[in-house]
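Hey, weird one. I pasted the PrsW family intramembrane metalloprotease sequence into the form twice and got a warning about non-standard characters only the second time. First submission, copied straight from the form history:
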Amino acid sequence: MAQLDPKAVLEGRVPGRPPIALIAGTAVCLFCAVVALGIDALYGGAGFWVGLVLAILPIPLLVALTLTLDRLEPEPARALLFSFAWGAGIAVLGALVLNTLGLLYVTVPIFGEAKGHVVSATLGAPVIEESLKGAVLFGLLWFRRNEIDGFADGIIYAAMVGLGFAMMENVTYYMRAFDEGGADQLQAVFILRGLVAPLSHPLFTSMTGLGVAYAATHRRLQLFAPVLGLLGAMLLHGLWNGATTFGMGGLAVVYLLDGCVLVVLIVVVAVERRGTVRLIERYLPTYGGTGLVTPQDIRMLRAIPSRRAARRWARAVGGPPAARAMVDYQLAATELALLHKRAERGVADPRWFAARRTALLDLMATARQAFLRTPPRRPEGPPWAPRGPSGFLHGP
């Protein structure tokens, strides 16, 4: 069987052709992030480095928590990095320029100094920032529509954009707090932004992510859904920024609202994950005749713990090559089930569907053969099919 590029197949791109546009876009985003940090460093004092460290500190944990929602069908690492870099770079730098111009030439001249700042924060900033953050999601919808398989994907990409934006924004807030009020004020701001409400920007942008995901996986309302999601993001953001004008009661209401939104998003991801499991149970049995999947293998594919156990078993009997083959097999099988969902909803071009299905089946076969060619280190069969049948049982 011809050598395949598993990563290219899973990402849906041409093998042997690296995603130049994605790599170049990430580089541009990171350059913009450096420029934004340079501006902070130029106008900030000693608090810049304190703010930078505190802003970065919770990001690994927050990213890890976000990616736990994406374990059944993980998104490409490059696309996730690009989304984060867009939020931290282009969105932040663009918001810095546009918010400043709007404040200087629109809201303050019209409403006066005090009220102009309130109007800018409550109305101007949400429109500008959510538009800039949402632009990358609209770009994914336009250029990489087939990468978005459901609401969970839209939420994941939106959360990565929001985390990048929040990290860079927090640098400014922490820097100002330290320079203006010292350690006490910095502590208060860090507790509020870094510990109490670290997911505010990801929550706002997730509304856009939901709209984009709907448009990518449904035939109707493809124009209306993303716009509605963007408006929802602006509304949540505006309520958050304007809550301080209503005192502690306003803050309590907004915190409660955002908490409810977070719970709803988690429920959406959980429900969709169960739906993906049902797709696996529904569509993969039709490929039993290929020898690539058995009922026992489908049982292994249904749950994260059994998939993890299968990877451990593969590594035990065949080392790293077999473990990598098992990962490729699991991801290709999941993508195959999701491909059928697209076809069922009428959003998969027939020729693309046929080519994509063939590529995924070839990857499953290649992964299985690579595993079977590995001399077994242990004689026992797969833990999910100790007596067979399984496509991963070694021959005599």
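That's the output from the first submission. The warning seems to come from a hidden character in my clipboard, not from the data itself. The first helix runs from residue 6 to 11.
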